[in-house]
């Protein structure tokens, strides 16, 4: 028989709702979500996860303070990745003036070492806008046509890929028609990328994802 904790860890909120960890109750992020018409259900037993969304994705939020404080956020990310969950696992990371020098290291750890999807945000306001977009986007989606939850994240993932030098919206879209996930794209060889975006862009993309990471750059 499933315990309450196991049931909560796999709970999917109704359309228009988000299940949030109790610690977020008085945050500006929650207030912004409410302002965007999202209904909040608070829970104490989400484990390391911060939010459950109705499109069967979950979110771990890594704040500026988490990053600057040291490497403890990495242990939290590993626990998040290892959690036995049927949800698509997303990581929202604050990329601010103070945390910018550490961001490339965080990005490398989340994308390459853990194989998770990272979405950079400037703070809780932008995070609430992304979450609201995903929650309300679910309402417009046809549940009989949808096969994977990733379709709802396309605009967010496209924006992430467009951070690669030489990749605009057209090339980013072409890449995700060819590669099913950000992880496949990260691991693609230049020869696999070239038929999709051309020789020059293929080299830039491969260099971007495989360059050595240095703190402070």
Offer a concise description of the structure:
With 217 residues, this protein is of the alpha/beta class. It is built from 11 helices and 6 strands.
Write the topology of this structure:
Blueprint: H1 4-9, E1 17-21, H2 28-35, E2 39-43, E3 51-52, E4 57-62, H3 64-68, H4 72-82, E5 88-94, H5 100-113, E6 117-121, H6 124-140, H7 154-161, H8 169-178, H9 182-187, H10 190-197, H11 199-210
Parallel strand pairs: 1-2, 4-5, 5-6
Antiparallel strand pairs: 1-3, 3-4
Straight-line distance between termini: 51 Å
Q: Give me the side-by-side strand order of the main sheet.
A: 2-1-3-4-5-6
Structure class: alpha/beta
Helix coverage percent: 40-55%
What ranges have pLDDT less than 50 throughout 5 or more consecutive residues?
139-153, 213-217
* Succession of helices and strands: HEHEEEHHEHEHHHHHH
Mean pLDDT: 81
Residue fraction in strands = 5-15%
Rg result: 18 Å
General form: globular
Number of helices: 11
Number of strands: 6
Q: What's the story with the biggest beta sheet?
A: 6 strands, mixed
């Amino acid at each position: 028989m499933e315990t309450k904790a196991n049931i909560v860890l796999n709970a999917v909120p109704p359309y228009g709702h988000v299940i949030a960890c109790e610690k977020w109750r008085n945050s500006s992020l929650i207030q912004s979500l409410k302002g965007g018409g999202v209904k909040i259900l608070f829970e104490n037993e989400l484990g390391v996860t911060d939010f459950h969304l109705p499109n069967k994705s979950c979110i771990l939020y890594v704040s500026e303070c988490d990053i600057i404080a040291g490497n403890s956020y990495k242990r939290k990310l590993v626990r998040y990745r290892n959690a036995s969950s049927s949800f698509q696992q997303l990581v929202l990371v604050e990329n601010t003036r103070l945390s910018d020098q550490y961001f490339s290291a965080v990005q490398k750890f989340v994308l390459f070492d853990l194989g998770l999807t990272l979405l950079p945000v400037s703070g809780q306001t932008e995070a609430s806008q992304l979450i609201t977009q995903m929650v309300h986007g679910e309402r417009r989606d046809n549940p009989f046509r949808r096969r994977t939850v990733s379709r709802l994240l396309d605009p967010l993932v496209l924006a992430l890929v467009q951070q690669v030098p030489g990749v605009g919206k057209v090339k980013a879209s072409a890449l995700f028609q060819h590669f099913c996930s950000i992880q496949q794209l990260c691991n693609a060889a230049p020869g696999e990328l070239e038929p999709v975006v051309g020789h020059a862009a293929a080299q830039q993309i491969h260099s971007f994802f495989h360059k050595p990471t240095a703190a402070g750059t």
